[in-house]
Amino acid sequence: MGPARSDKGQWVRGWGLAAEEGVAAEAKAVKAGVGVAVEVSAAAVGAAGRKEKTSGRQTLQPKSSLVENQDALLAVRLAIASGKGGTGKTTIATNLAMRLAHHGQEVVYVDCDVEAPNGHLFLKPDEVREYPVNRLVPQVSQERCQHCGDCGRICRYNAILCLAERTLIYDELCHSCGGCVRVCPTRAITEIPHFVGVVRIGIAGKVQFVSGTLKVSEASSPPVIRAALQAMPPSDWVILDAPPGAACSVVETLRDCDYVLLVSEPTPFGLHDLQIALELAKTLAVPCGVVVNRAYSSMAELRELCGQAQVPVLGEIPDDLAIARAYSRGQRIIDVVPGLHRTFDHLLLRLLEELQPNVLPFRTRQDLEQAIYANDRMEATNLNEPGRLMAT
Ligand code: SF4
Ligand code: SF4
To answer: Which ligand has the shortest distance to the CA of 154?
Structure first.
């Protein structure tokens, strides 16, 4: 796949899924200020189990810049994030996705933790297809270079070293902004694709699965995250399994989200990192709620922190050895720990209360609520006990 050109014939920014074995999936960069567009062929779309709504090529764009793809606009983008690793983000994200699918919702799970993706261990997707992700990096023609130093001066990332007789580019520092290409007076700089990782697309039961993996030794994960987000198919729900922390990879994932579920644990480290995550959500102006993992009865400090931040605690996953065992075996906890599926159903109902009315179509909201209550009634009838969800 070669670099894309704009209408004016200039090199423009963009990362995308490179074509492989005739599956046309090439990046078409769009300099829109809010991101890039990726065109994915209907063949690739169908292979991932997604809806084929158009003949020919579909254009998937970041939600904020998209006006024509109504499917993507209607989808709820829900990110599962935390201030630190190991809190249980993937556990919450994968089980929530499976529960949504169980209730008849169309759901796509996107593993944005591209430095250490592990969602596939729990979802076990089939029919996985893999696409390389490239970004554009500059290349200098030493013959054309006049050693004026303009490119080095404009690069904010110190990726260019202009010597008296040679101009050097450090690919690993380059952020592919294209500034050096524009300022070069002799057109000595061109851009070439640089492989940075892969995106995998598959299907896990009724859940559509997308995962990005950053190439070992690559320093910058946002290009792979962007490619994964652009590769996701239309759906009612998008569950984004965010990287840990509050760095640029997390910002890339949370940008354009409708809601963030912050996973925390009632420990001093958990509280400290929850504070950072709350600040990040506030800075990005994304509404958020908290799910407590490994919860026990007294969590006064955590509740106090959430109260001060005016952020609701939407659910609690108990501190249970059976859950730890299931996790270590790569099992989904709703499948093996009795009663936990109801905990996730309750979490979904709380989420519905929190989501802005314009985020989810009323019909979808109603369908999900009815499915959850119907499921609860059926189980309660089988067990001859009152439905727990109905009672709450
Ligand atoms: S593309 Fe941007 S970041 Fe990369 S070397 Fe050129 S100016 Fe620096
Ligand atoms: S801007 Fe162009 S001519 Fe000037 S140093 Fe850089 S590559 Fe050479």
So the answer is: 1
